[in-house]
Specification:
The protein has 237 residues and is an alpha/beta fold. It is 41% helix and 9% strand. The chain binds ligand 8Z2 and NADPH dihydro-nicotinamide-adenine-dinucleotide phosphate.
């Protein structure tokens, strides 16, 4: 990242290790930023992820790991950024979530956690408005990155698989996500809070990439049969 800073710029980059699941590490991260740079104007909650699994196969430990990372980690970062700086001085926050409007079969644990973040953002957009804090979400579609591809290599090429489900017929880029994040943090979004921007090439409006096997396990509602059952003599207790 430091190598990307143009010569002559006053921008600085500093890495501070932090596991967002650890309360003390999150507290240290936020207070270190304030003591090092004197302010904390923006927070982007980007850390997150999941593994693919049908819910029926999920252990509680696996569910907890994903909820802890995505929902609890975001909560801790929000609360500590507020305590360390934003309560007194305002700020702008962007949470990176998932496309969730149609559920996310296959990664339901993460979708549930991200839906929690989506709703948390709406609550905080109101709770923290008088502190001068705006909070929004970005929901990426299928965005190719070397690190994400490496994470899913065991279950096939998920990024190639996503292309037919994306009206734009391609994956997005990390720069296209950053553009939306930068907009939401900027004064250009001064009147936007509690909102989610999808950066998905139209994915969310299109199909859900989940095959439902043919089945007849959902019988139609049958009025006559219900009346018949109700007319039968009931057992006396
Ligand atoms: C439709 C198709 C969509 C396919 C998916 C397509 C998604 C595309 C859109 C989204 C893209 C992205 O998000 S890109 C982001 C890419 N990066 C990531 O996703 C990072 C993923 N990794 C993580 O965040 C973390 O490792 C995380 C998953 C939260 C687990 O945290 P921990 O390290 O603490 O947990 P672990 O100790 O590894 O595991 C705890 C338990 O979790 C379960 N567990 C962990 N990894 C597992 C795995 N691969 N398969 C099964 N179960 C697993 C086991 O029960 C583990 O217990 P034991 O059995 O006892 O070990
Ligand atoms: N790529 C895509 O198509 C999509 C991505 N997203 C989301 O976008 C975000 C960025 O993902 P992407 O860049 O693609 O993939 P990456 O795997 O590169 O990014 C995930 C990041 O989260 C960090 N992270 C995970 N757990 C923790 C933790 N406990 N504490 C601190 N940091 C943590 C990882 O850190 P480290 O490298 O140190 O492990 C990594 O930098 C994630 O939230 C992801 O779920 C959402 C939809 C689609």
């Amino acid at each position: 990242m430091a190598a990307c800073i143009p010569p002559g710029s006053t921008a600085q980059v500093k890495a501070i290790p932090c596991n967002i699941r650890k309360e003390d590490e999150v507290k240290n991260l936020m207070s270190s930023v304030v003591s090092e740079f004197g302010r904390l104007d923006f927070l982007v909650n980007n850390g997150g992820g999941q593994f693919q699994s049908p819910v029926s196969m999920l252990s509680l430990k696996g569910w907890n790991a994903v909820v802890d990372t995505n929902l609890n980690g975001t909560f801790l970062c929000l609360r500590e950024a507020y305590n360390a700086w934003m309560a007194e001085n305002g700020g702008a926050v962007v949470n990176i979530i998932l496309l969730i409007s149609k559920g996310r079969p296959g990664i339901a644990h993460s979708a549930a956690a991200r839906a929690g973040i989506d709703n948390l953002s709406k609550s905080l957009a109101v709770e923290w408005a008088s502190n001068g804090i705006r909070i929004n979400n970005v929901a990426p579609g299928s965005i190719y990155s070397v690190t994400a591809a490496e994470n899913y290599k065991d279950i096939g090429d998920v990024f190639r698989h996503a292309i037919p489900f994306t009206p734009a017929k391609r994956n997005g880029t990390t720069e296209e996500v950053s553009a939306a994040v930068t907009f939401l943090l900027s004064p250009a979004a001064a009147f936007i809070t509690g909102e989610t921007i999808k950066v998905d090439g139209g994915w969310d409006l299109y199909q859900v990439p989940w095959e439902i096997p043919e089945h007849d396990r959902m019988p139609a509602y049958n009025w006559e049969k219900i009346i018949e059952e109700e007319d039968k003599p009931k057992a006396k207790l």
